[in-house]
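> example.struct
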C-alpha cells in the first residue's frame, strides 16, 4: 500500500475563558469584616490585569489558551517526528510518536488516519480499522479517511463494508484512488459468492486483500 501523510485537516482553536470575579482583589465586597466606606473608590486595574494576566509574586500565571497553544505545538512536533520516521520506513517508531501526539490532540483526525496507515503496514488490521473509523468520525467529509478505512476493512476481511467506505470516498472525491480499491473489494465479494456456491461455510467467508486469486 502506498503510504501518504495527509496534513490538510484544519485544527480547532480553543476559546479564552473569562477570569473569575474573585481574582480581583480591589472589589469592595472581598473583605466582609472591613467597614464599608461609600467615598472609597476601587483602585483601577493594573496594566497586567487589563491584559488578562494575574500577577502573583511578580510572576504571570498561564491562561487556558496559552496552555492549549503549548499542547498544540508539542503535538505538532511529535506529529512531524512521526512523519519523518514513517517516510524512513520506521513504522513502529512513528506509531509511538503519533500515539503521544494523539494524547495531546485527540480530536486531530489526520493523526488517527496516519496511525491507521502504519498499523496496516504492521499487519494490525483490527486496530487500523478502529483508528480509521475514528478519523472518519472526526472528519466525515475527508475522502482519504474513508479510503484508509476501506483498506482496513479489506485487510480485516470485510469487503462489503469496504465497498461502502470507498463509495463514500468517491462521493466526496470522484477522481480519488478509491476507484481501484473498490474494484479489488468487488473482486473479493465475487470470489466469496463463487466459493459459497461450492459449499464453503459462512464462517470461512473471510478473505485478506492478498487472496484475490
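> example.seq
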Amino acid at each position: 500500500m502506498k503510504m501518504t501523510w495527509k496534513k490538510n485537516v484544519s485544527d480547532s482553536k480553543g476559546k479564552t475563558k473569562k477570569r473569575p470575579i474573585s481574582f480581583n482583589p480591589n472589589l469592595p465586597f472581598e473583605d466582609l469584616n472591613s467597614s464599608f466606606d461609600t467615598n472609597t473608590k476601587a483602585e483601577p486595574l493594573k496594566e497586567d490585569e487589563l491584559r488578562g494576566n494575574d500577577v502573583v509574586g511578580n510572576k504571570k500565571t498561564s491562561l487556558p489558551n496559552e496552555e492549549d497553544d503549548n499542547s498544540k505545538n508539542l503535538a505538532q512536533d511529535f506529529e512531524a517526528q512521526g512523519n519523518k520516521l514513517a517516510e524512513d520506513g520506521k513504522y513502529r517508531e512513528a506509531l509511538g510518536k503519533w500515539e503521544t501526539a494523539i494524547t495531546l490532540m485527540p480530536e486531530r483526525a489526520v493523526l488517527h488516519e496516519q496511525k491507521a496507515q502504519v498499523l496496516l503496514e504492521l499487519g494490525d488490521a483490527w486496530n487500523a480499522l478502529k483508528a480509521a473509523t475514528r478519523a472518519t468520525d472526526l472528519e466525515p467529509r475527508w475522502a482519504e479517511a474513508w479510503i484508509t478505512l476501506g483498506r482496513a476493512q479489506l485487510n480485516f476481511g470485510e469487503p462489503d463494508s469496504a465497498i461502502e467506505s470507498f463509495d463514500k470516498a468517491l462521493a466526496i472525491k470522484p477522481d480519488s484512488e478509491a476507484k481501484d480499491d473498490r474494484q479489488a473489494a468487488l473482486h473479493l465479494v465475487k470470489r466469496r459468492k463463487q466459493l459459497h456456491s461450492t459449499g464453503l461455510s459462512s464462517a470461512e467467508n473471510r478473505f485478506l486483500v492478498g487472496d484475490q486469486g
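> remarks
The longest strand covers residues 55-56.
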